[in-house]
Amino acid sequence: MFSPKGTMMKVQVRNAPNVSILDCSGNIDVYTSTRVRDALLAELRSGVGSVLVNMSDIGHVDSSGVAALVEALQLSRKTQTRFGLYGLRGNARSVIELARLHKVFYLFENEQQALEKIGTVQPFSGV
Hints:
By secondary structure, the chain is α/β, with parallel strands linked by helices. It has a single domain, classed as STAS domain (Transcription Regulator spoIIAA, 2-Layer Sandwich). The chain has a five-stranded mixed β-sheet. Strand 2, helix 1 and strand 3 form a beta-alpha-beta unit. Helix 1 packs parallel to helix 2. The chain is globular.
């Protein structure tokens, strides 16, 4: 999917033992956030134990992108699925931190750390 700025958004799903990894690249904005949201919600409903989002190739996140991530967080609580983000950099990291969402998301520096630690964290509880 292309945003008007010409940035292509890609979402690909990979699987590791009991973990779905969503590799995202491009911008998560008003033009592309629905695609990210739909992929996230599908994985969270699939019954997998953990879902990780690879944000290392994300250039920009706007409020609709934040909303998609927060909706996924809410569903992870309902489905008792571990949910985390890794590879945040630049604008994406700044937006998450400015919104103070780094206090509610499990954040990891890289894929290796995410895969090592996601199984040790408690699934989000409550709604």
